[in-house]
Write a structure and sequence with these properties.
80% helix; 532 residues; mainly alpha
């Protein structure tokens, strides 16, 4: 557990710095292209295309399949060197092919994701896409290199590398504002030079982020070399495992296409694609800092226990990780819900836009705790090389997401359309985690539900008075029309103040009832502090 704790702290610290710098990156981007508007949504669609393909590569193949296979390969006589070299070569070739195909299909891909854009908006988004799609190759390499390092218990670089990307992006977007001014929201105002500076900056950041990982190979004890002799990689085995996961992520992307097309109909003066992406970024801030930093080391350990058939230890890993994640994620959800308006002001151009965007964030937050549980449950299936079962419970979620988005598009006014789409996604995720937990319980003969479900209920009850205290602070400081919505910085400061109060009351209540997770949390926090 000491090893898990150290790794969690390393990943958590890197994630905090990465996410804070990512917030700054998005603030500068919003200043350049606006939070609502045709140009912002056009760039959002184009820059999301490589991210979507990266999701297929990373979640669809690497996390589910490669990490457990590398853990197994470590038992080989050469420590897995040959396997990793073959895998890296194969991955590089595949990424080059995928990037080339995406570049050729750029106009079609933009049309698929934003069919309700105007012709001028489609043209602008396609121009952005030609600059953004090379990110596919570098995103894929970054994911492949990072997961290999994680499997070798070198957790830090994969977490810290995005900070370099954010620095490059902040500099480039800042240069755009200095040269061309901002926010540039009108579609017809964009020139080839403006497109090149903005989208080229986004791609340059991903390139640098990937190159950073190459400096850490010696720490992992690896010596990569091109190896085109792919016999022995176990392609059939990997393809069989990845097949279900690939279909699962493709189903998710199809649901995302439906959502994007529905939201493209609201592009203009109301929250739409870019506003939804920014609300999701706020939603992902606690998820990334808490769930990924604590859960990633657990996944490596859980894979080792599953590979050696130590099922009791796997069940213990599940219960312990969910309780630990729950302690932090519940209070994060409560704090962010109370601070929804000032937090949304960080990524909007005014108080009115922040108020309009806040419901989108609130609707996403409904599934924050369930997704933390899903992280553990889904990766437990992966640890047992079962990618088939996650496909089916994710397919159910995707069907609900797509159906809910279509229904929202038919019933809701465009001013609340983004919030409606977010609400249907949260509902679908809650259904997904319930089904997934039941299936894993049946497979393992129990997943320690009696140990972690009451803990989540207890954390939730403690968060209610904590949230009320945060709401009092919000009201005393002027509410949604006070100083916290006067600027992005004021929004960040206000959200931080509210979050601090909510956290203090929450921890105080749980400490009063001598909740054991409080001591574990303080132990984890002390690891961040410098030693005297």
């Amino acid at each position: 557990m000491s090893s898990i704790g150290r790794a969690s702290v390393l990943i958590g610290a890197g994630t905090v710095v990465s996410r804070v710098s990512g917030l700054l990156r998005t603030i500068v981007l919003v200043a350049a292209i606006g939070s609502f508007g045709g140009a912002g949504d056009a760039f959002a669609v184009a820059n999301q295309l490589p991210n979507n393909i990266y999701a297929i590569i990373s979640t669809g193949l690497l996390t589910a399949v490669v990490v457990p296979q590398i853990v197994k390969a470590a038992a080989h006589a050469d420590g897995g060197q040959a396997f990793i070299s073959k895998l890296f070569t194969l991955g590089t070739v595949g990424l080059l092919g995928a990037t080339a195909l995406a570049m050729i299909a750029a106009p079609f891909l933009v049309q698929v994701y934003a069919s309700k854009f105007t012709p001028d908006q489609l043209a602008l988004s396609t121009a952005f896409a030609y600059w953004c799609l090379p990110q596919i190759f570098f995103y894929g390499l970054y994911a492949l290199l990072g997961e290999i390092l994680n499997a070798r218990r070198v957790f830090g670089p994969y977490t810290w590398a995005p900070i370099v990307n954010n620095i490059v992006s902040i500099a480039g977007f800042g240069a755009f504002i200095l040269i061309f001014g901002g926010p540039q929201t009108r579609v017809d105002a964009w020139t080839p030079s403006m497109i090149a500076v903005l989208a080229g900056t986004a791609t340059a950041g991903i390139v640098v982020q990937t190159l950073v990982l190459l400096f850490f190979w010696r720490r992992a004890g690896l010596a990569l070399r091109p190896d085109f002799q792919w016999k022995g990689v176990g392609l059939r085995h990997i393809a069989r495992l990845a097949g279900w996961t690939f279909l699962m992520v493709v189903a998710g992307q199809l649901a995302g296409i439906v959502q994007s097309n529905v939201l493209s109909g609201a592009s203009g003066e109301d929250p739409a694609i870019f506003a939804s992406q920014n609300a999701w970024l706020l939603f992902m801030l606690p998820y990334s800092i808490i769930v990924l930093s604590i859960g990633t080391p657990y996944f490596t350990q859980l894979s080792e226990h599953a590979a050696s058939g130590r099922h009791d230890e796997v069940r213990a890993d599940i219960a312990r990780s969910i309780r630990t994640l729950g302690f932090f994620i519940v209070v994060a959800a409560a704090a962010l819900a109370v601070a929804a308006v000032p937090a949304s002001r960080i990524f909007t151009n005014g108080a009115e836009q922040a108020t309009a965007a806040a419901p989108v964030l609130l609707c996403f937050l409904l599934c924050l705790v369930p997704l933390a549980v899903l992280f553990v449950v889904q990766r437990t299936f992966y640890a047992y090389n079962d990618t088939r079962t996650p496909f089916f419970f994710t397919l159910l979620q995707c069907a609900l997401v797509a159906g809910g988005a279509v229904l929202a598009g038919l019933l809701l006014d465009r001013s609340v359309l983004a919030a409606g789409v977010a609400l249907t996604q949260s509902f679908a995720s809650i259904v997904q985690v319930i089904v997934a937990s039941v299936l894993l319980h049946r497979r393992l003969g129990g997943i320690g539900t009696a140990a972690w479900l009451p803990a989540l209920v207890k954390f939730t009850l403690a968060s209610l008075p904590a949230a009320m205290a945060g709401f009092v602070v919000l009201s005393l400081l002027g509410g949604s029309t006070g100083w916290m919505t006067t600027s992005s910085l004021a929004g960040a400061v206000g959200a931080g103040l509210i979050g601090t109060v909510v956290l203090a009351v929450y921890v105080g209540i749980l400490a009063l009832f001598r909740t054991p997770e409080v001591a574990s949390a303080f132990s984890l926090v002390r690891r961040f502090l410098p030693r005297r």
